[in-house]
Specification:
The structure holds 2 protein chains of 2 kinds. By secondary structure, chain A is mainly alpha-helical. Chain A has one domain. Helix content of chain A is about 60%, strand content about 0%. Chain A contains 23 helices and no strands. The N and C termini of chain A lie close together (about 10 Å). The two termini of chain B are about 20 Å apart. In chain B, helix 22 runs antiparallel to helix 23. By secondary structure, chain B is mainly α. Among the domains of chain B are: about 50 residues, no CATH class; about 140 residues, no CATH class. The chains are: A mainly alpha, B mainly alpha. Chains A and B meet through helix 2, helix 3, helix 6 and helix 21 of A and helix 1, helix 3, helix 7 and helix 23 of B. Chain A: InterPro entries: Glyco_trans_ALG6/ALG8. Chain A: This is Alpha-1,3-glucosyltransferase. Chain A: It is an enzyme of class 2 (transferase). Chain A: Pathway: Protein modification; protein glycosylation. Chain A: One of its GO terms (molecular function) is dolichyl pyrophosphate Man9GlcNAc2 alpha-1,3-glucosyltransferase activity.
Chain lengths: ~550, ~575
């Protein structure tokens, strides 16, 4: 990384997080032999915060007759254990029919069996529809947490460890980066507040990324297919995985090699075999215990092309430009699908081609971020929650020594949380939203300028940081480039204004969604700028050895 | 912070050992160049609780919507009483059974809070005087009350920060910072104040302020703070012996003239008068309106209700928990007629089987089965309030004797801790929440390894014994307590001194046993949890519905009592720990 020379003399470890609260907390454990304690402290506090978020309401709490995502997940735990496999994708589709790939169903089956063993009424077939109790809520929340602890968290630590070593970060900084990734507010509030199992899909993808970094191509493809088999949203990453793996099987550098010798056919076939086999294992039971029609039905359920170009209000290109151009009146459904496909491809192809010709490990998070962001902005049928998919590779960018990158990533993750506001407001998660707007920023040291300088000295000897000298404390959440600083400050001001309007001013009768549209427009603007910045950074990223 | 303390304390001794200078410099070089240490910039070290406050406040905010006990309604009712009724009616009003039963200053505090209630919270129904359980208040009221807890707790943070600031030298500051952070982050406060709902944080702030004043050698301020604290919550009366003796010895007795036999000159009457005046003025001012309205008898009867039983519904982990448990065991053993006959041959008084059955039918010793006004034991002699009082007083007097000889900071805090212990272990109708009254002063003493062991056993048992207060929130309370325990175990280990004689360290209090005990808390908690979860599934478990609570109190009582024995031993028989540090 180019910034490393200008930062500090080489004798000191990188000090990117020196001013942050989390550094303050973890510095007593920064000795090598106490690092385990630091890691466990991060993990346990991450779980504690998730539990505390979980005390809030969930999607569709007490809203009969359809309830919300919580009921959907509970319903799948119910049907998968009571119905034979061949009925899973057919049973009463009007009431939260299963519309995720089979691994979700298997996951639900296991959890459902455990849950029924604890308390039968929670998942009794049909009788349990809309069942709500404290016990059930605790159990469901617990399943999300345990899935995350087993799948997502180890992957995060593996990634930060590997990447941290490559960019020569001190162990304490690696732990802090892991903490920053784990305290991604949008993911926390959607999984543990709204209720979903996104961390399973994201964790499997992250596992695949870690295996790519370790050159385990087969394992990487297996994990990625598992991720796809859990939620089809992992498709947003697939072009990069495909072209990266393909690029790894081709050799463009060495000269004097014959055309065929440039291709590592053996590696390619191994990757292909492992991919196909994993797919077969995942989807096989659907055919084995049912028939071909069952498989087709599952695919039909997974890719609902009959739905609209976007759902509710989402901060992507279509929803934003729909304010001015009413697509649904101008075009047919088929045409819209085609246009959005073209736009998505145009958005992601530069990144895909670039990673094909330059399959470099340090490029992976950038390319994945660009690609999934393109999908989010231009593809068909996007939910607001889908922002979590691009957010995973974006938050991985925290693993860097450049404070500018950290500042921008922190900014976009705030904006992402803001873009979820209408959804969270509907769920009744306002309090959790407010806390999560502050907590990760403050943990990362973006709010260190808020330390109480106005209080008398005897109350606060020295501002926030216990062990750090004054000049190293000043790290605000802003990059060094003033244009970016201006953009960020403007967007934050706009966020504040929109919130104030939303809170105090009822929208005009003619436009009941006015504040939501303002939210969408602002978020889309920020996402667009960030997407361009990602492209710019990716193309200018220096060639590194790993 | 902890690591710096230990490295600075160990390095001189290590340096002395290394006589070979060359070796020393050769060893030093690479370590110095690779990692910068804090000692390079000593001026930069500041110890601030600011970050901790922000972090814990954010966590506490997330806890707003979770479970709260009836204590929330109690305090809501008090808000309603103090805001709507004239002051003369405060201690007479009894529409709800949650009557005002704290001393006047707390009532004034509630009254002060009513100034800040926003209009829509009043609309929400926060100020209704209704029968218990019939209030129609909603989330807004809860949020308002929870915020008042968080704000009033700032006092504790400020006092602890002050305690850190007055320490001289990095080593002492490091230790003080660990003490301060462990107190403000205490799982007890999180469970009792921010989930269960009470205002302990503020009250403990006052108590810590007393300790700060002792450290600063400000006896009059100590007297003032203690009187104020008493007028906030009279349970602190249990601490009076230590405070009283300390003030008497420190300010009012002339030790030298007493030694030389001139008893007439031994009492400094002026100081005694001043201290007395402070106490009288504080009490007078706080009780004045009630004296004026002539309702003092009502106030007193509210403050000291004698109609409660020996143990609470859930036995607090004290001596009486073990006592009740033994009674239960003896009952079930002696119900077997053969054993009964056999035993009656050797022992003087054994009730017959019929007698036991009859007593059981009358509802003797069913302590953990719900609220009981008066506990009767089946086999063992019954306990009267007088017995409790005498036992407490006996250990109180015992614990202040060394304070007379050596009236310094450590002895004072030690006596305070032992007073709290005595009241907790032998008191009448003790609440498990009172365990924090022991833990908080105890924290100030933990700079020695052997004390650390007693402390860890106490906090392990004490905080775990608070778990049954909450019906759910299991994983949160477990994990928070667990990680708190690990963090402060590691931190205190690094800053506490080892005793010179390493053999005695090993033998003392059987450290291995203590470790096994602490680890045993985990399966104990899990077992009781699973018994509770599966009680609807397996009917066998329903018969043991109250066994879980009994396991909790007996297991925790063992820990609390053994930590008390350990501390008492050190307090009475090891003088080296209690000398003032230079």
């Amino acid at each position: 990384m180019p910034s490393k020379q200008r930062k500090k003399p080489s004798t000191t470890p990188s000090l990117v997080f020196y001013g942050s609260a989390i550094y303050d907390f973890l510095s007593p454990f920064r000795k090598a032999q106490n690092q385990w304690a630091a890691r466990y402290i991060v993990v346990i506090f991450a779980i504690i915060i998730r539990l505390a978020i979980g005390f809030g309401s969930y999607s569709g709490m007490g809203v009969a007759p359809m309830f919300g995502d919580f009921e959907a997940q509970r319903h799948w735990l119910e049907i998968t254990q009571h119905l034979p496999l061949k009925d899973w994708y057919w049973y009463d589709l009007q009431y939260w029919g299963l519309d995720y790939p089979p691994l979700t169903a298997y996951h639900s089956l296991v959890l459902g069996k455990v849950g029924s063993w604890v308390h039968y009424e929670w998942f009794a077939l049909d009788a349990s529809r809309g069942f709500e109790s404290e016990g059930l809520k605790s159990f469901m929340r617990f399943t999300v947490i345990i899935s995350e602890v087993l799948i997502y968290m180890p992957a995060v630590f593996k990634f930060t460890r590997y990447n941290g070593k490559q960019i020569k970060q001190s162990p304490i900084d690696q732990t802090i980066v892991a903490c920053a990734i784990l305290f991604q507010p949008s993911l926390m509030i959607i999984d543990h507040g709204h209720f979903q199992y996104n961390t399973v899909m994201l964790g499997l993808t992250l596992m695949a990324i870690v295996h790519l970094l370790n050159d385990n191509y087969m394992l990487a493809s297996i994990f990625f297919v598992l991720s796809l088999g859990f939620k089809q949203m992992a498709l947003y990453y697939s072009p990069i995985f495909f072209f990266y793996l393909l690029g790894r099987c081709c050799d463009f550098k060495s000269s004097n090699v014959s055309f065929f010798a440039r291709f590592n056919i053996f590696r390619l076939s191994l990757i292909a075999i492992s991919t196909v086999l994993t797919f077969a294992v995942l989807f096989g039971p659907l055919v084995l215990f049912g028939n071909m029609a069952n498989l087709l039905q599952s695919i039909h359920r997974i890719f609902p092309f009959q739905r609209g170009i976007f759902e509710d209000k989402v901060a992507n290109f279509w929803c934003f430009s729909n304010i001015f151009i009413k697509y649904r009146t101008l075009f047919e459904q088929q045409q819209l699908q085609f246009i959005s496909l073209l736009a998505t491809l145009a958005g992601l192809l530069p990144a895909a081609i670039y990673i094909f010709f330059k399959p470099q490990k340090s490029l992976l998070p950038w390319a994945l971020a660009v690609c999934s962001m393109s999908f989010f902005m231009f593809s068909f049928q996007v939910h607001e929650k889908t922002i979590l998919v691009p957010l995973l590779p974006i938050t991985l960018l925290y693993s860097t020594n450049e404070t500018d990158i950290i500042a921008l990533v922190a900014w976009i993750s705030n904006i992402a949380l803001f873009s979820l506001w209408p959804l969270l407001k509907k769920d009744g998660l306002m309090l959790q939203y407010a806390v999560l707007l502050l907590l990760p920023n403050w943990v990362m040291g973006n709010l260190s300028f808020l330390t109480p300088k106005f209080l008398p000295k005897f109350l606060t000897p020295g501002p926030s940081i216990s062990l750090v000298s004054k000049d190293q404390k000043e790290r605000h959440g802003l990059p060094s480039n003033w244009i970016w600083s201006l953009i960020i400050l403007t967007s934050y001001t706009a966020v504040a204004v929109i919130h104030l309007l939303d809170f105090y001013v009822p929208p005009p009768q003619r436009y009941p969604d006015l504040w939501v549209l303002a939210n969408v427009s602002l978020s889309f603007g920020c996402f667009g700028l960030f997407w361009l910045w990602l492209y710019y950074k990716m193309f200018t990223l220096p060639t590194t050895e790993y | 912070m902890s690591s710096t303390g230990s490295s600075s304390s160990h390095s001189p001794s290590k340096a002395r050992k290394r006589t070979n200078k060359q070796l020393k410099s050769a060893l030093k070089k690479p370590t110095n160049s690779s990692i910068p240490t804090e000692s390079d910039k000593p001026s930069s070290r500041t110890f601030s609780l600011w970050n901790i406050w922000v972090a814990s406040t954010l966590l506490k905010t997330l806890l707003f919507p979770t479970y709260h006990s009836t204590d929330l309604e109690v305090h809501r009712n008090w808000l309603a009483i103090t805001s709507t009724l004239p002051i003369s009616k405060w201690y007479i009003e009894n529409t709800s059974i949650w009557t005002l039963d704290y001393p006047p200053l707390f009532a004034y505090f509630e009254w002060l809070l009513t100034w800040f209630i926003p209009g829509d919270v009043v609309q929400d129904g926060i100020l209704q005087i209704v029968k218990e359980g019939q209030g129609t208040y909603g989330l807004k009221t809860i949020v308002f009350l929870r915020i008042t807890v968080i704000i009033s707790e700032i006092l504790l943070f400020v006092v602890m920060q002050w305690f850190v600031n007055i320490q001289a030298g990095v080593r002492r500051k490091t230790f003080a910072f660990i003490v301060a952070s462990s107190v403000v982050l205490s799982p007890g406060l999180l469970i009792v104040d921010h989930i269960h709902f009470q205002y302990n944080g503020m009250l403990f702030g006052l108590m810590m302020l007393m300790i700060v004043f002792v450290q600063l050698d400000q006896s009059y301020w100590l007297a003032l703070t203690f009187s104020v604290l008493l007028c906030f919550k009279h349970i602190n009366l249990y601490l009076a012996p230590a405070v009283f003796v300390y003030l008497l010895r420190r300010e009012c007795l002339d030790w030298e003239s007493l030694k030389t036999g001139r008893v007439s000159r031994a009492v400094r009457w002026v100081n005694l008068f001043k201290l007395g005046a402070i106490v009288v003025v504080v009490f007078g001012l706080s009780f004045a309106p009630f004296i004026y309205h002539g309702v003092i008898p009502n106030v007193i009867s509210r403050l000291f209700p004698f109609s409660r039983g020996l143990t609470h519904a859930y036995w607090a982990p004290n001596v009486w928990a073990i006592y009740s448990f033994n009674d239960k065991v003896l009952t079930s053993v002696l119900k077997v007629s053969h054993i009964n006959k056999l035993a009656s041959k050797f022992l003087i008084y054994i009730p017959s089987v019929e007698n036991i059955v009859e007593r059981l039918a009358n509802g003797a010793n069913n302590g953990t089965k719900g609220l009981v006004q008066d506990v009767q034991f089946t086999i063992l002699p019954d306990i009267t309030p007088r017995v409790c009082f005498l036992l407490t007083l006996f250990y109180d007097i015992l614990s202040v004797v060394p304070l007379i000889v050596q009236p310094n900071f450590k002895r004072f805090v030690g006596a305070l801790t032992l007073n709290a212990y005595a009241s907790f272990l032998f008191g009448w109708h003790v609440h498990e929440k009172a365990i924090m009254l022991i833990i908080f002063p105890f924290t100030f003493l933990v700079n020695e390894r052997r004390i650390l062991k007693c402390f860890m056993v106490l906090v392990g048992a004490g905080y775990v014994s608070l778990f049954p207060l909450l019906p759910g929130q299991n994983l949160l309370k477990w994990l928070y307590t667990f990680i708190w325990f690990i963090i402060y175990f590691v931190s205190f280990m690094e800053v506490s001194k080892t005793h010179a004689d390493s053999f005695s360290v090993r033998v003392f209090l059987f450290d291995r046993v203590a470790l096994i005990y602490l680890i045993g808390l985990i399966p104990m908690v899990l077992m009781v949890f699973f018994m509770d979860v599966f009680k609807e599934k397996f009917e066998v478990l329903q018969k043991f519905e109250f066994v879980g609570l009994m396991i909790y109190s007996v297991y925790c009582a063992t820990g609390v009592i053994s930590s008390w024995v350990g501390l008492s031993w050190l307090y009475f028989f090891d003088d080296s720990i209690w000398e003032e540090e230079k």
